[in-house]
Structures are given as structure tokens and as C-alpha cells.
Amino acid sequence: MRLVAATACALALAVAWYLFWPSSWGGRVSYIMVSGSSMEPTLKAGDLAVVRRSAGYRPGEVVAFSSPIGTVIHRIVDGSPDEGFVLKGDNRTTPDPFRASPDELQGKLWLRVPMGGLFLSYLKRPLNVLMMVVALAGLLLLGWEGRRLKHRAGLRKLRDHSRSVSSLSNLFLILAVTAGVFVTAGLLFLAATVWGFQKESSRLVRREWPLYSHEVRLSYTAEMEPSTLYPDGLVGPVSVPQGRQEASPPLPLYTRLARGLRATFAYRFSSPDASSLSGEAGAEVVLEAGQQGWRKQLVLLPPESFAGPSVGKELRIDLTQVFALISEIERETGVRAPWYELRIVPLVRLRGEVSDRRIDDFFSPAFVFKIDPTQVSPESTLVKSQVTTATREERRKVYLGLAGWQVSVERWRQLSLTSLACALTLAASAAAAAVVLARRRPTIWLTARYRGLVVDLAAPAAIDDTTVIDVASFGDLVRLARLKDTPVLHYHAPDGGDIFLLRDGMTSYRLLFPAKGG
Questions:
Q1: Is the pTM of this model over 0.70?
Q2: For the residues of 424-470, what is the DSSP string, one character each?
């Protein structure tokens, strides 16, 4: 029967291990505490969502995924593994701004534990974990001790006896069990400490970080022939507010009435550590016919020197000359393109020092104005930027993932060492108190160990009418008690001595412990 029970228990543990082992330890399951209201009413804040990794995912399933802002649990509403999944919270009207690839999905919703996330957050506190470990170890030890005494005594009739274990025996037992609990906890924390010191606390990683950036902002005013549509002959100025990159579309610029463009570009160099900045700034215009057509490049503004991180330049383009040039080339080649592109290209060269590095860099973004037979269409993106990065090595902490709790290896070592020291200190304190008590009452460990056999008496039992036999040891008395299914009577004499007695009809078996020093 015991073999069947042990086998069933082992199978149950194996199934539980397979089903619930966390992914951070190599399993297939992730435990996520729900926060926010984006998935109501399916999931509420404080719920524990148990997600399990799957071989495939499809629209309609609730999944957890790693996003730039952390772990999010939403529902798949569209997409595929190849193009990425579109996700949306049940309580939201718009989908998430990014698509999740299958590799980013931690799994699909398997179980929901209402308010179970509160228990998960409780476990994130090391002191709470320590208290639970100690309590569990205590329950296991107490249960094991009770079962051992019950099986070894074999005294079914003792349940009908009126037993009274002395307060000192109880105290000794509590101290002994407490010492055992904290020793067990200490062994667990010792294993955690050894495991923590086997892990590297940090590793050297290469990281891209922004060294500096260029930015050019273009604004323009279109010069038009005064007309019903353009009574003052101007459209603009058109510019982009700070914090944005695109301009609102202006009035259409009709080719037949367009006469010129007055443009201004503002260049800015940004870096947290830059010095001795200087350079040259100019501009050119590039005219290109359709796709893979002819291309003509003209200097608009010769390079001019400047100092500092920023510079601004004003430009003017005569559109009547541009149209005349296009007509001349069309007449000469006999080819008319469906459209043309007029590109205003600021040319900036910058020199200086950035983070103890000497730089000599160029930045030449293009702003496109599309010309067709009816309209001149400027692009809406009037802010162009370029970020230059550098690679540097840095040491980053290594973190351990434990059921949703992220802790650094260094912090793990500190916690495990502190917990180990506390557990051993408490175990030593409880053991020392038990030793002191045992020295005061040498027999207390006997009454505590065999508390299921021993009954304390308030007064000595009468044995004058029986044959008294003195036994050699307490072990002999215990064997007789089990053999005869009879309790051992104990009396603590006023002089400090102890009398253990076993009555069997007209025979009394006795063991005397004289007072200490007597």
C-alpha cells in the first residue's frame, strides 16, 4: 500500500512539474500579475494569468508578449506568424501600435486565478518567502514526528487515556522542533547561496549609444502669380512646430501660377559632450526626371563657414527658370517625363570633438518638391535627422527570473546570505535554550521524545500492593509499555528526582532518576 501511495505521489509531482514548471527555469509556463483595466472583463487587475507556450497562435486567443514597455497580456485580433500578430485589449477600441512576432509571445492564456496576483506580489518579498518556508518546514517536521510516534508506539488505546504532558516537556519539544525547522531552512538558504555564487553577477556587453545627431528643419514660402486663388501672391510660410516632423498640407501650388520658392533651413548639432565645433554650410538643388531619367545638379548656395552647434541659411529658387530648363531639355531630347523632382539639399560639414573623439562629418538631407504638369507638391516631412552611434562595452547586472520576480544575482547572494545567517542564529538560539532546559531537567528529553507514551501525574502512584521491579533503562520501560499496551506514568518528585512507573496488574515496573547532585 505504501509503495502504491509513493508511486502515485511521484507521478503527481512529475505531472505537476511538467504542467506548472515556470519558463524562467526552463519550463513552458509563465505567471503574470494583471495590472490595469485593458482586458476587462476577461481579466481584472490583481488576477493571476497563467500562460503556456504553444506551437501556434491564432486570432481570438489571449496571449502574453514582451513589448518595449514590459510584459503585456492582450488578445490577438489579426495578423499571422509571418507578418506579426495584431493585438488589442478587450476594453480598448484601438489595437496596439506594434505587432508581436511568435518569438515575442510568452504563451497563451491557460488558467486565470482571480486575485491570485496578490499572492504572487506577496511572494516577491523575501521575508514573506522565509516565513512560508519556515512554517512549511515546521508543519512537515511536526507531522513526521506525530506519525513516527503513532506508528512506533502502536498504542491504539492511548487515545482513550487522559494524557497530560508537562509544560516544560512541551517547551523543550517546541524548542527542538524550532531548531530543526531553522536548520532545515538554513540548509535551503545554504543551497541558494551556493547556487547564487555559481552564477556570474555581471557580464560584459556591447551596447550602441547615441554619440551625436544632426537635424535640419526646412520652412518655405511659395511665390505665386497674384490671382483669384492667390490674391497676395504668397502661400506660406509653411513650417513644422517643435516636437513634430510633418507640416500640415498648404494650399495646392499650381504649376502654371508658381513663380518661386523662398526657403530657410536651420541646422542643429546635438551631443551631450561636444566642443570646438565649426564647419561649412551651403546648399544645392537637384532636378531629376521621373524614375531613372536625366539628373541635373546646380549649386544654390556656396559653402560658408560657421562656428558652434547651429546655423541657419536663407535660399531662393526661381521656379520660372526651373520650368524653362525642363522645357529646354524636353525640346532637346524629345522626351517628356510624367513628373519631375526638385530636391533642395542642404550641405553641412561639421568638425569638432565629441566625447574625446575627433569628428569630421557630413550631413546632406534632401527635401523633395514633385513637379507635374498641373501642380508642385512639396513633401510634408520638413524635419530630417541622423543619429550617429558608438559602441561601448559595459558591465551589466545579471538577473534571475523566479516566478515573475526579477532579482539580480548580487541581490540574490545578499538575501540568501542574510537569510542563512538569520536561520542559523535562530536555530542556535533555540538549540541553546533546549540544552539549558535539558541540563535543568535531565529527563525532559525522554518525556518530550516519548510524549505519546508518558502520562504526567500530579501525585505519586500507590504501589504498595504490587510487586515492584526496577528496570535497568528507560528503553526497557518503553519496550514493556508497547508490549503490554500500557502508558508509562511519570512523577516529578519535590526533591528534583523523577519516577517512571508502568503498572501491569499486581506488578509495577519502575525506573528511578535521582535528583541532580543527589
A1: no
A2: HHHHHHHHHHHHHHHHH-TTHHHHHHTTTTEEE-SSPPP-TTSEEEE
